[in-house]
Amino acid sequence: MLSGRSFCLAFVVALISAFGFVTLSHSGNNTDTNLSNNYDVTLSKVDGTPDALNPTSPEPNAAAQPSSSSIVPLQNWFDNVTETQDIDPKLFKDFWRKWELVTTRYKPEGQQLRFVYANKIGAEALAKGQYPFPEGTVFAKIIAHAEHDPIFDSSLIPGSIIRIQVMLKKANDPKARDGWVYSLVPVYDTKLTSHLTTNEIDACQACHVVAQSRDMVFSQPFPSPFGAAPAREVGDNSFQQSFKKMSIDQLPSHTRDLVKKLAPEAKSVQRLTMPSFIGTLGESREVLAGFAHKQNAVYILGSEDEKNILIAAPQDNCVALTSFYEDDAQDKKFQRTWSICPDQNQ
Ligand code: HEC
C-alpha cells in the first residue's frame, strides 16, 4: 500500500513523465502582462492567426479545453468553403477523407493533436523520401485540441479544431516561397476572416527552412508496424547552430532590457533573427527552452524589428521565458514571463 504522502509523490512523478515539460504553477514568477486590452480571440472564429498563438492564453499545458459539444464535423462546414488563401479550395476538398494521413504529432504545450495529410503524389514521394516533392504536392495539417473522452477517459481524443494550414508545391506561382505556397483554411467559416500578411507568410517560410533537407516539410511518414521502418533522417541541429553568440551590449535596446530583467547575470546570449510572427513564438517556446536548458545559455529568437521576441534563460533546474509581441493592426503589445521545467527523465 502506498502511504498518502508517497502516493501524492507518485502522482506528481506520473504527471511529470506524462508531459515532457511541466509548468511551475503559481510560484510568483509568472507575470502575465497584457500591456493593453485582452487579445480577443474566440474559438469559433479562428482562421489561423491567434488562439494557440495568443501569448495571453493560459499557462502552457493548461489551455482551457472547450467542451466536446463544440466539436464541429468537418464535412458540415468544409463543403461550403469558398475562399482560402492563395490556393483554390477545390484542391484539397475532403482531404481528411481522401488523402493519406502521413503522421500525427502531439504538442504537450497547450495539449494539441496535429494530423498531417498529403495528397497521393505527396504521400508517395514522402514514403520514398524523394525530395524535392513533385509539383502539385499538397500537405494539409489539422490542429485540434486534445480533449477527454467523456465515456472512457483513458486517452485524449481530437476535439475542436484550432487551425488548418496547407502548403502547395507550385514553383512558378508568384506567391510561392522556396517553391511552396503557404495557405490557411478558414475554420468554422466559409471565408477567411483575415488573411496572412506577407510578413506572416515569410514567417511560415522562415521556420520551414529548418527542414530544408526534406524540401521544407517537417513530417516524416509513420514507421511501418510490419517489417522495416522507412529510413529516417537523423535530425540535424542546424537550427540550433544558426543562433549566433553575442554580448548583451550588441543587442538592440528593447531585447537587451528584457534579457536584463529575465537573466540579470547574463553577459552573452545566443540570438537568431528571422521573419517571425506570433505563431513563430508559439511554436518555438519548448524548442528554445530545450536549447537554454541543455546549453546552459540564454537563447533569443525573433524578428529583426523587435516586434516578436522570445527569450529563454536557464534558471536553477528550470527555464524562464519571456515572450513579447507587438500587434500593429490592433496597436497592442503583449508581454509574458513564466517558467517551465524540462522533465528530469529526458
Ligand atoms: C516556428 C516554426 C513554424 C512556423 C512559423 C510555421 N510552421 Fe508549419 N510546421 C512546423 C512544424 C514543426 C511542423 C511539423 C508538424 C507539427 O509539429 O505540427 C509543421 C508542419 C506544417 C505543415 C504540414 C507539412 C509539414 O511540413 O510537416 C503545413 C502544411 C504547415 N506546417 C503550414 C504552415 C503555414 C501555412 C505556416 C504559416 C502560417 C506555418 N506552417 C508556420 C513549424 C512551423
Residues in β-strands, percent: 25-35%
Computed Rg? 21 Å
**Main sheet attributes: strand count, strand direction, barrel closure:** 8 strands, mixed
**Helical residue percent?**
10-25%
Per DSSP, the total helix count is 8
- The CATH architecture of the largest domain can be named as 3-Layer(bba) Sandwich
Low-confidence stretches: 1-70
Shape: globular
**What would CATH call the class of the largest domain?**
Alpha Beta
Bound molecules: heme C
* Count of distinct strands: 13
Give the CATH topology of the largest domain: Chalcone isomerase
- Overall mean confidence score, pLDDT: 77
What number of domains?
2
If you had to describe this structure to a student in words, what would you say it looks like?
The chain has two domains: 19-38 and 238-342, no CATH class; 65-214, Chalcone isomerase, CATH 3.50.70. It is 22% helix and 28% strand. The protein has helices at residues 4-18, 74-78, 95-98, 120-128, 198-208, 238-241, 253-262, 278-295, and strands spanning 21-23, 31-34, 100-107, 112-118, 138-148, 156-169, 180-185, 244-247, 268-273, 298-302, 308-315, 318-327, 332-342. The longest helix has 18 residues, at 278-295. Mean pLDDT is 77; it is low at 1-70. Bound molecules: heme C. The site of heme C (HEC) has 24 residues, from strand 4, strand 5, strand 6, strand 7 and helix 5.
